[in-house]
Amino acid sequence: MPQQTTDVRTASFAELDARTFHDLLKLRVDVFVVEQNCPYPELDGRDVEPDTRHVWLTDGGAPLAYLRILTDPGGVARIGRVVVAPSARGGGHAGRLMTAALDLIGDRPAVLDAQSHLVAFYARHGFTVSGPEYVEDGIPHTPMCRNARSAPAASAIDA
Q1: For residues 68 and 102, is the Cβ–Cβ distance under 8 A?
Q2: Residue 34 pLDDT more than 70?
Q3: What is the C-alpha separation between 67 and 114, in angstroms, rounded?
Q4: Domain coordinates in residue numbering, the chain
Q5: Strand ranges inside 42-76, DSSP E
Q6: Residue 41 CA to its chain's centroid (Å)
Q7: What is the DSSP string of 92-157?
Q8: d(CA 146, CA 38)
Q9: How deeply is 115 buried, as exposed, middle or buried, from its count of CB atoms within 10 A (0-12, 13-18, 19+)?
Q10: pLDDT tens figures, 118-139
Q11: For 54-81, what is each residue's pLDDT tens digit?
């Protein structure tokens, strides 16, 4: 297997420069709004919250994959906006990104709303279905949660 040359980056909103934030938003909009044809308010105000962490992979410049970690009431980590650039799909980037995010989250419980076709991917990272499937913006989603005690060791993750 070839060695990964991507770098994992993490920042709060205050630590992001304008160009980086632009590139992260462009990736999110290109995939969620344009590719998935879901016109929704991408800028929801949560990117700028002091506890939000932006996590992304880059290979010398443009982001290849991205997610954000929010803090919900009670300190629960909420993972969202998980995205991989079309040109980078199939390279294991989503798995590497999730591993980095879970390392940042540590012992806190975590939740996410998975696009339903990705439930098995998130299950490999210790998430379990926590509610009924629902449709948002025409796409089936499934709520999932991860209890830190039930999380697999990073070496056991196959992504």
Answers
A1: no
A2: yes
A3: 12
A4: 7-156
A5: 53-58, 63-71
A6: 18
A7: SHHHHHHHHHHHHHTTS-EEEEEEGGGHHHHHTTT-EE-S--EEETTEEEEEEEE-GGGPPPGGG-
A8: 27
A9: middle
A10: 999 999 999 999 999 999 888 9
A11: 999 998 778 999 999 999 999 999 999 9
Using DSSP bridges, classify how beta strands 128-129 and 139-146 pair: parallel, antiparallel or unpaired.
antiparallel
Alpha-carbon gap, residue 31 to 21, rounded angstroms:
16
Q: Give the whole-angstrom CA distance, residue 130 versus residue 147.
A: 11
Coil, strand, or helix at residue 14?
helix
The top-level CATH class assigned to 7-156 is alpha beta
Residue 16 in contact with residue 54, Cβ under 8 Å? Answer: yes
Distance CA 84, CA 1 (A): 20
Nearest of 83, 76, 102 to residue 154 by alpha carbon? 102
The token pair at 56 is 């992304």
Task: Tell me the chain's radius of gyration from C-alpha atoms.
Answer: 15
Distance from C-alpha of 141 to C-alpha of 152, rounded to nearest angstrom: 23
Which residues are paired to 155 by β-bridges?
Answer: none
Q: What is the pLDDT of residue 5?
A: 62
Helix (H) or strand (E) holding 26: helix 18-28
Token code pair at residue 132: 């009924």
